[in-house]
Amino acid sequence: MKKLIVASTSTVHGSAYLEYILPTLAEFFNGVKSIVFIPYARPGGITYDEYTSIANKAFSKIDIKVKGVHEYENAKEAIREAEGIFTGGGNTFELINQVYKNDIFSDLKEVVENGTPYFGTSAGSNLCGVTMMNTNDMPIVYPPSFKTLEFIPFNINAHYLDPNPDSTHMGETRETRIKEYHVFNSISVLGLREGSWLEVTGDSIILRGPHTARLFQQNKEALELTSNKDIKEYF
């Protein structure tokens, strides 16, 4: 049975890396002593080792050790033998590119669908949707496919921002971009605000955190979904 935490962000304003969600992770990874970290998204171009060190520092606060998938001789075996898996944020294009390049796509899909607990933030959450097409990231590389793991039956728009009527910025809003997407695509998109996450257990998908989430569906008005409720009925 699937067991996932799909979070909009790793860090909320004014807190340390993963600090806001550590109590949830302590319960989610209960009994897990070590997790495999997928650092492929490498935010800001940092190295895999640097990124793994950041993740390890955060998880050490709940007595869980972190080892980067790149540190294993065989990445496929690392995924298959993992007690738990964490995929961090950064650039979604590069994340998906490396998942395909290192041939762990099918391994990830199989082990998580069979119960290995998975935690993703930002790009690592985009990986959980049907496709990666609603990322906010620049296309710095060209992955073999936009297809992702389909752990949830919709796409994520992480770090979702509402239009600010007082802003002088004249560029497109997130909502504008998602409407453009829906001219050509029918897959629903969930705008996850900072500090929100999805708790997935089997077919149940519960929105958690202090905010509502904004659901975009093709040819329909956007909806606000309430926190602490199962949102599976919308998909």
Automatic annotation (TrEMBL):
Keyword Zinc belongs to the record: no
The enzyme's E.C. designation: 3.4.13.21
InterPro entries with a match to the protein in the record: Class_I_gatase-like, Peptidase_S51
Pfam families: Peptidase_S51
Record flagged with keyword Protease: yes
Keywords: Dipeptidase, Hydrolase, Protease, Serine protease
GO MF entry, a single one: dipeptidase activity
Family stated for the protein in its record: Belongs to the peptidase S51 family.
PANTHER family assigned: ALPHA-ASPARTYL DIPEPTIDASE (PTHR20842:SF0), PROTEASE S51 ALPHA-ASPARTYL DIPEPTIDASE (PTHR20842)
Protein name (database record): Peptidase E
Organism of this sequence: Tenacibaculum polynesiense
